[in-house]
């Protein structure tokens, strides 16, 4: 390679940029992972140039052959990256011109680095979304599988980290499932807005060449070209949206892992983490620490930080392209890698955790989890709810003072709180009955939880169809492009 060719824009300058400037502006360490997408985008562009008669068929064929050779080198891991060049896009273009000389130098006709990079990032993000959606599905499956095994396992439900009402473990795990459903839906929505082609927007004003943007969008599997060339090169909403979806997914994972950490403590004893997803102590031989769950929880901050990073970068940028936008990829790539790894390990932790059914049930004996059921009993008997609430509160205070549970009180002890209380109250107070009677849609009763499983199966089927359908569609488009 010609040693003087340090940048694609050097013709304007009488001397080269300082080494410190080249190092400061280089994005090569980050954007190497765009190499394959850059070749695909270039293949679509050159096919269009040749088809439109903007370059000769011979030059078009030569460029295509060179790009296919470069793609093979990328796939085989043999593509020689020149560290002195500022990014992967320069590396690919210079490699092509070294092979094809004048023909290769015609590739960039009617195209700018601005629309080129934006197109590459959108193609990368489509694949990233599909990968993330698949990892979410794996965790959803793990949660639903464990929920179906534990439909009748009873444990305390919490509000304010205080015992509230008894629930089943199956019900609790499905709550996390439906959080993840919303995460998957957000990524799918983001995919639709990502799947728009900026290629052909050029620097920001479009081009004087007779290009066909519909054709390049079709070749690359995009739903449509962007409607406005200025917006096409400056839009990073899709990046911010992806990062928001990743950040909220991380928040949901952090909540799940918070419970795994607490539940695995001796004070709770609700579960034991598998050895494969735990670590020990360097000084205390007895320790078994839930480090994977803790690290997942801890890495949430970094993902939220990636979102804030990009939002703060975007907040003051005038139209159209500004070099600040180079900074979006480091945050995007890091958040994606972190989110997928955390999702996969969360699925493994859930799948292998050992739940202590007896300990969970024993924990429901304290904290008056059946108090609401006693109030509801009185309401059914005709007492207004607010008065029933007050009566049961007084009964709870009576129990606290005497070290008793509600279900341990005799009928004679209960009657002073309301003359509506009769012997049938003892059919209501057992914790197991409190759970079984909650048969409202979305409730915790083992009788109604299978409805959630049915909804979950529908969710997984639709998510699977989306992932498989888009993956097949993109693969077909790229196979045709490489022919």
Any overview of this molecule?
With 483 residues, the protein is mainly alpha-helical. 61% of the residues lie in helices and 4% in strands. The chain has three domains: 10-109, Orthogonal Bundle (Fumarase C, Chain B, domain 1), CATH 1.10.275; 114-203 and 227-363 and 452-482, Fumarase/aspartase (Central domain) (Fumarase C, Chain A, domain 2, Up-down Bundle), CATH 1.20.200.10; 371-429, Ribonucleotide Reductase Protein R1, domain 1. α9 (213-219) links the parallel β3 (196-197) and β4. α7 (113-149) runs antiparallel to α20 (449-482), α8 packs parallel to α20 (449-482) and α11 (237-263) runs antiparallel to α12 (291-298). The two termini are 28 Å apart. The model has no long low-confidence stretch (mean pLDDT 95).
Short recap of the structure:
61% of the residues lie in helices and 4% in strands. It has 483 residues and is mainly alpha-helical.
């Amino acid at each position: 390679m010609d040693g003087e060719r340090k940048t694609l824009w050097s013709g304007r300058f009488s001397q080269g940029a300082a080494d410190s400037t080249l190092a400061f502006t280089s994005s090569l360490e980050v954007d190497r992972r765009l190499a394959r997408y850059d070749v695909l985008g270039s293949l679509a562009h050159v096919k269009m140039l040749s088809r439109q008669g903007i370059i000769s068929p011979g030059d078009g064929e030569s460029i295509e052959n060179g790009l296919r050779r470069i793609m093979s080198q990328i796939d085989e891991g043999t593509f020689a990256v020149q560290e002195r060049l500022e990014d992967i896009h320069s590396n690919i273009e210079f490699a092509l011109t070294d092979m094809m000389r004048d023909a290769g130098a015609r590739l960039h006709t009617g195209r700018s680095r601005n629309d080129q990079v934006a197109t590459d990032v959108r193609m990368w993000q489509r694949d990233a979304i599909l990968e993330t959606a698949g990892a979410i599905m794996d965790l959803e499956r793990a949660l639903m599988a464990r929920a179906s095994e534990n439909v009748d396992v009873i444990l305390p439900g919490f509000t304010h980290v205080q015992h509230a009402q008894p629930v089943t473990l199956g019900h609790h795990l499905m709550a996390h499932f439906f959080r993840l459903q919303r995460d998957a839906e957000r990524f799918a929505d983001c995919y639709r807005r990502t799947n728009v082609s900026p290629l052909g927007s050029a620097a920001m004003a479009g081009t004087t060449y007779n290009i066909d943007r519909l054709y390049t969008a079709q070749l690359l599997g995009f739903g449509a070209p962007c409607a406005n060339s200025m917006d096409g090169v400056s839009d990073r909403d899709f990046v911010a949206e992806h990062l928001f979806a990743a950040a909220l997914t991380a928040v949901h994972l952090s909540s799940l892992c918070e419970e795994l950490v607490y539940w695995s403590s001796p004070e709770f004893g609700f579960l034991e983490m598998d050895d494969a997803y735990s670590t020990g102590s360097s000084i205390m031989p007895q320790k078994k620490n839930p480090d994977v769950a803790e690290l997942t929880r801890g890495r949430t901050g970094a993902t939220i930080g990636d979102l804030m990073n990009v939002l703060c970068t975007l907040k003051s940028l005038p139209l159209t392209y500004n070099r600040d936008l180079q900074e979006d990829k480091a945050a995007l790539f890091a958040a994606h890698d972190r989110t997928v790894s955390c999702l996969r390990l969360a699925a493994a932790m859930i799948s292998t955790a050992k739940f202590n059914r007896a300990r969970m049930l024993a924990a429901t004996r304290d904290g008056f989890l059946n108090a609401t059921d006693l109030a509801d009993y009185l309401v059914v008997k005709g007492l207004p709810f607010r008065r029933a609430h007050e009566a049961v509160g007084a009964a709870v205070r009576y129990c606290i003072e005497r070290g008793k549970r509600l279900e341990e009180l005799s009928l004679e002890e209960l009657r002073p709180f309301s003359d509506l209380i009769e012997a049938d109250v003892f059919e209501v107070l057992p914790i197991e009955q409190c759970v079984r009677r909650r048969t409202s849609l979305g409730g915790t009763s083992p009788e109604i939880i299978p409805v959630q499983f049915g909804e979950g199966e529908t969710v997984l089927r639709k998510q699977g169809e989306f992932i498989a359908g888009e993956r097949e569609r993109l693969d077909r488009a790229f196979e045709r492009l490489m022919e």
